[in-house]
Amino acid sequence: MEVQTQAYRDVKEGKLERAFSEIAAVIPNELTLDDLKERFLAITENSDEITIIKEDQTSMIIELKVEDTVIPYEIFIVPSPEGVHYEQYYRQDHTIPEEVFELANQGHEIVVRTIFNGDVLSSFYLQLHLLWRLAPEMLFALDISAAAKIISRNYIQYHVENNLLPDTQDLYVIHSIYGGESEEPSQFWFHTHGLLRAGLTDVELIIPSSLSSYNGISDLFNTFVNNAIQNGNVPVNEPIVIAQSKAGFIQVIAVPWEEGLAYIGKRSLPFDLADVETEEVRLQPIDAEVSFIGGMNDRDEHHQLPSCLLFEYNEEEGYMQCFTKQFTENEEMMFYKTNEETARIAYNAKQSFGYFAEIFNAEKENKEFHFIAKFGIPYDEEEFEHMWFDMQNINEDNISGVLTNSPYYVTNMQEGNQYPLDFEHLTDWIIYAGEDMITPSNLYLFIG
């Protein structure tokens, strides 16, 4: 097996080369490269934002100009693979009618390949945006870089037409494998695909014991990945804080999987870990008495690429171990967000607030609906306390709501009182509709 020490050194220093991001729009009809070129010419007729740099009989390379940045894309068309069963692929959501997959089997794939330039989420958005312009008849998209995850047409249309940035978790897919010797699953392996295009390793959890739920697993991945993206590196073999509970801080250590397998099912000291800057990362002897899923026998070539196992770090006792059932049973964890992630959430909340207001004014008397929004209330000079309000009024002249919690810093507001609110301070919103929770991220699931 190839030694991947340099990859771990690079990712720790924020220098890991980004892999290609490859996404295909699946269309119901046949399309030639000449047809696609005509679409390009129509798009660029009154604009110089897209330029065809090179073309041959099988593909073309274009450049997209965004402000002062030029992004190259390779584009080619292939028939849908013979005998393919798209309906069996993992789906990001379930808005795609089953009959669509039959149409897809008879069509083509328009594949767009690029290397992200600059901000990862913006680059991902631009790739989806280009696909939408090239293939307005798309049935769905296939995120080849994320283990061929299916992205719905509704998702892409909603984000493109409303100019919304994707969530961090949209960049990757989490595969979960479970088993064990008993009837109930007692061993779990969660691992991502799709992060190499962000200049990161993929991320894994191996839990060699039973779980009562998956609570907190996706938040753990999302928080770790978001921090890695915003900081530009993976802090290999170093503890970082990702959440807080009543018991204190929750810290994780990311260990190269080759080394991490030896620590599954044990309490280990972090200073036993290799110094990736000076030592080679190699497979370590594994205790044969410890049974778990995710070992070498479970890893094909795709699961031997650079990836880090996450361990929980107990700072007080000074040891690390696999996450356990107790983590998923903790209902009061608060996962940290970076400033950049908070700004993205606020941006998307503002961009989609028109939908929120429209639904509010249509359903505010409906007892099945409950509308809350978060606003950053200023105090001191440039400080804001972010608090939730039960919305009471939304129109062109006025937004108002009842404060739902006691402020820590804002001294001129009290829980239970109604206040006028400034749209510019909006940072998030939620609609509770029966058993559904609608947010800016999943609104597309409900509006068609």
- Count of helices? 11
Instruction: Compute the separation of the termini in Å.
Output: 47 Å
Rg (C-alpha, Å): 24 Å
Low-confidence stretches: none
| Percentage of residues in DSSP E strands | 25-35%
Bin the helical content.
10-25%
| Overall pLDDT | 93
Largest sheet: 8 strands, mixed
Number of domain modules: 3
Could you say which overall geometry the principal axes of the C-alpha atoms support? Answer: globular
Outline of this structure?
The chain folds into three domains: 18-166, no CATH class; 171-335, no CATH class; 339-447, no CATH class. The strands form three sheets. Strands 8, 9, 10, 11, 12, 13, 14 and 15 form an eight-stranded mixed beta sheet that branches. It has a seven-stranded antiparallel beta sheet with strand order 2-3-4-5-1-6-7. The protein has a six-stranded antiparallel beta sheet with strand order 19-18-17-16-20-21. The two termini are 47 Å apart.
Summary keywords:
single chain; globular; seven-stranded antiparallel β-sheet; alpha+beta; 11 helices; eight-stranded mixed β-sheet; 23% helix; 21 strands; 448 residues; 3 domains
Structural overview:
- By secondary structure, the chain is of the alpha+beta class.
- The chain folds into 3 domains: 18-166, no CATH class; 171-335, no CATH class; 339-447, no CATH class.
- Helices cover 23% and strands 31% of the residues.
- The strands form 3 sheets. Strands 8, 9, 10, 11, 12, 13, 14 and 15 form an 8-stranded mixed beta sheet that branches. A 7-stranded antiparallel beta sheet has the order 2-3-4-5-1-6-7.
- α4 (120-134) crosses α5 (153-161).
- The longest helix is centred in the N-terminal third of the chain and has 15 residues, at 120-134.
- The radius of gyration is 24 Å and the shape is globular.
- The two termini are 47 Å apart.
